[in-house]
Amino acid sequence: MISFSSSSQRVSRASTMASASASLSSFLLPLRTARSPPRISSSTLRFSPNERKYEYGTRICVCRASYVGFRDLDADDFRHPLDKQNTLLLRAIPGLSELGKAFLGTISEQVMLLENIGTSILVAENQLPELHKMMVESANILNIESPDLYVRQNPVPNAYTLAVSGRKPFVVVHTSLVELLTRRELQAVLAHELGHLKCDHGVWLTFANILTMGAYTVPGVGGFIARNFEEQLFRWLRAAELTCDRAALLVVQDPKVVISVLMKLSGGCPSLSDQLNVDAFLEQARSYDKASSSPIGWYIRNAQTRQLSHPLPVLRAREIDEWSRSQEYQSLLRRAIQLNSLR
C-alpha cells in the first residue's frame, strides 16, 4: 500500500504479495518494512476540533472562485521526476495499463465497493454535503472525475484509495481524521488521494511490486537482483508520495496548508493544533538537512530512510515548499489562469 500513516510498521512478504493485488493508496507517514518489497498502502488526514465550531463558509469557502482550475492538467505535468521516469518505463510495455486496470478494477474494486457500502457512509449532495462539495471542487481543479467518497468510523486517522482510475474509483476517510485537520487541510489530503488516482499509481506500483517479488525466484543471483529492485521500488514509492503532495498543493494553492498537514501528522493533536507553527517546522527540516550533511550523517540518514515507503515528514515539507517556489509550479498556475480567462 501507498500510505501517509503516523506509525512505522513492518510488513511481511506474504502481506506484500496480498497488497500487490489490491493496492491502497494514501496520505500516511513512513512505513518501514523488513527485507521484503514494500506494500502499496493508505493515506492519513484529520480535521481540527476547533474547526467544528464554525460553519463551512466562515473558515474557508469550499467552492470559492479564487481557486485556479487546471482544465487541461495531465498527470505528467506535476509528477516528481523519478515517478515520471519509472512510469514511462512501464508505460512503454504495450497493454500493461489496460491489463492492470482490468485486473484491479474487476476484482479489487468489487471487493472494496461491497466493503465500503456495508461499513461506511457514502457522501453525496444530501449526505455530508460540505464534504461532497469539497471533493467535487478538488476533482474539478485537478481535471479528474470525482470518485465516490466514504466516511468510516475508525479511531486511527487515515484516508485511502484504490489508486486505479477504474469503473468505480473511491476515497475513504476515517472519522478520527476530523479531529485534527482543518477543512482546507482535509481538502489537501483529499487532493493527495486524487493525485494517486490521476497518476494510476496502483497500476504501475503493483506491477513493479510483482516484478520485484518475481526476481526472488531467479536461481543464483535472484536475491541480489531482487534487493536492487526492492530499493528502487522504495524510492519510487517515496517519489509517488511527493507527486501527490504536489497534487495537494495544486488544489489548496497554499504550501503552508500542505506543510501543516505533514506537521500535524508528525506530532500534532487536537489540544495542541492551535499552537503549531509551520515556519518552525520548515526550520526543523533545514536542521535535519544540516545534521545529515556530513559523511556520517548522510550514512545514518540513508540507513533510516532506504526502506521507508514514504519520505520523512520534514523532507516532504521541505520538498513541497521548494516546489511551490519553482518555475514548474508557477508555469502551471500561469497556464491555468490564461486558459480560465478564455472561458
Automatic annotation (TrEMBL):
Protein name: Peptidase M48 domain-containing protein
Taxonomic path: Eukaryota, Viridiplantae, Streptophyta, Embryophyta, Tracheophyta
Keyword annotations of the record: Hydrolase, Metal-binding, Metalloprotease, Protease, Zinc
Family according to the record: Belongs to the peptidase M48 family.
Cofactor binding note of this UniProt entry: Binds 1 zinc ion per subunit.
One function term, GO molecular function aspect: metal ion binding
Domain Peptidase M48: 129-323
Biological processes, Gene Ontology terms: proteolysis
Cofactor: Zn(2+)
